[in-house]
Write a structure and sequence with these properties.
Blueprint lengths: L1 H51 L4 E3 L5 E3 L11 H15 L3 H9 L23
Antiparallel strand pairs: 1-2
């Protein structure tokens, strides 16, 4: 019987530590969010200043640099874009658009993944 109570006590301690760490992480994430917001504001100020004054490179202590550069990227592939492209391709090649679209987007053809986990739920506030 004492083995069962030891298991229960160990479980209770594990849950307490889990909840404590969860609270600490939530507090740290709030702090990080504030820091990231401030960093983003400063980034925008530095970027605008460098662009407005045509500064390509800014030397920092320790040999580090801040450089302006242009990055090229393409937008992500969306369902609407795929639909548009399929419709265009099918109309020029005389293919059945709806059949091909259903073949790609029918959820029964995709695997369904299930994952079990735990989630800490906040206590619901009583209605007044």
């Amino acid at each position: 019987m004492s083995n069962l109570s030891n298991d229960q006590n160990a479980f209770k301690q594990t849950v307490k530590e889990y909840v404590t760490l969860d609270k600490k992480i939530a507090e740290a994430e709030k702090t990080i969010k504030i820091l990231k917001t401030r960093k983003e504001m400063l980034y925008n100020n530095v970027f605008r200043y460098m662009v407005n004054h045509q500064i390509k490179e800014l030397n920092l202590p320790g040999g580090e640099k801040i450089k302006t550069y242009t990055r090229k990227s393409r937008p992500g592939v969306t369902k609407a874009w795929v639909s548009d492209r399929l419709h265009s391709y099918c109309s020029t090649n005389h293919l059945n658009y709806e059949e091909l679209y259903d073949f790609i987007y029918d959820p029964t053809h995709r695997p369904q993944v299930e994952k079990q986990s735990i989630k800490k739920m906040k206590a619901k506030k009583a209605k007044k």
